């Protein structure tokens, strides 16, 4: 089986699932010095000291849910994730889109983005927003139908943000 044809499974996980915390720790190797780790395979699951905030000072929000990508041919864990956070009644934010370095360039970011958009739609959101941490990925967002918007929330004015209207799914009749 070639790397490109490996079957990818998307699963939903909570913000505190060890699979998610391991990916987030790997994505932020220079996390706050207050974080100590517990090794599990190639990833590190952060475990804050009492009163310390993991993820470089950011306390994970219990309202964030993640879509995690797993491949059957990767025995050492997940290959990427993307988070979804509610920011208004009909609007959600896509955050922490991450693919482990050995698996980049295989379309997993696009797959994760589609998966988290589908999750948002199934949860009743009409719009998803995101902030591009790296402008090299802006092309991915535009190719998925995102349009550039002014910074939202507490983002500083130089932030590059995007938004996408989600097509409605069939609603059950009452």
UniProtKB/TrEMBL annotation:
Assigned keywords, A-Z: Acyltransferase, Transferase
Gene3D superfamilies xrefs: 3.40.630.30
GO molecular function: acyltransferase activity, transferring groups other than amino-acyl groups
Tagged with keyword Transferase: yes
PROSITE patterns: GNAT
UniProt keyword Transferase present: yes
Organism domain of life: Bacteria
Pfam family, one: Acetyltransf_1
Domain N-acetyltransferase: 22-167
PANTHER family: AMINOALKYLPHOSPHONATE N-ACETYLTRANSFERASE-RELATED (PTHR43877:SF2), AMINOALKYLPHOSPHONATE N-ACETYLTRANSFERASE-RELATED-RELATED (PTHR43877)
Descriptive protein name: N-acetyltransferase domain-containing protein
């Amino acid at each position: 089986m070639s790397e490109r044809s490996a079957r990818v499974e998307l699963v939903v996980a909570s913000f505190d699932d060890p699979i998610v915390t391991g990916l987030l720790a790997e994505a932020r190797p220079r996390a706050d010095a207050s974080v100590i780790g517990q090794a599990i395979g190639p990833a590190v699951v952060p475990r804050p000291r009492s009163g310390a905030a993991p993820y470089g000072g950011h306390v994970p929000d219990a309202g964030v849910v993640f879509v995690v990508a797993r491949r059957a041919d990767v025995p050492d864990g997940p290959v990427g994730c993307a988070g979804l956070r509610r920011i208004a009644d009909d609007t959600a934010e896509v955050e922490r889109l991450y693919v482990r370095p050995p698996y980049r360039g295989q379309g997993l970011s696009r797959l994760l983005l589609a998966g988290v958009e589908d999750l948002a739609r199934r949860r009743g959101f009409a719009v998803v927003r995101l902030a591009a941490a790296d402008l090299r990925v802006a092309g991915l967002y535009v190719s998925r139908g995102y349009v550039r918007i002014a910074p939202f929330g507490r983002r500083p004015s130089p932030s590059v943000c995007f938004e996408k209207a989600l097509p409605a799914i069939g609603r059950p009749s009452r």
